[in-house]
What we know:
The two termini are 22 Å apart. Strand 2 (32-38) and strand 3 (41-50) form a beta hairpin. 17% of the residues are buried. It is built from two helices and four strands, in the order E-H-E-E-H-E. It is of the alpha+beta class. 29% of the residues lie in helices and 39% in strands. The chain has a four-stranded antiparallel sheet with strand order 2-3-1-4, with helices on one face. The chain has helices at 16-27, 56-65; strands spanning 3-10, 32-38, 41-50, 70-73.
Amino acid sequence: MNISDVMIHINESLDEEARAALENALQMVEGVVSPRFNAGKAHLLMVAYDTDTTSTAVLLEKTRAEGYRAQLVGM
């Protein structure tokens, strides 16, 4: 298992309920260890994931599939 982090920038403003729903959706992706929004920066989502199991492309696509415009940060 190789754990890495990726930051995803969400263009939309998300309330607490929407952030929790997106975290839960990403948690369902095989290989995701911990999706979490940064405190005080509700548009930045940090996802810890197993690089042997999933990829940043899969995580970004899942975020977009949930209806959000998003980009990888620093990629």
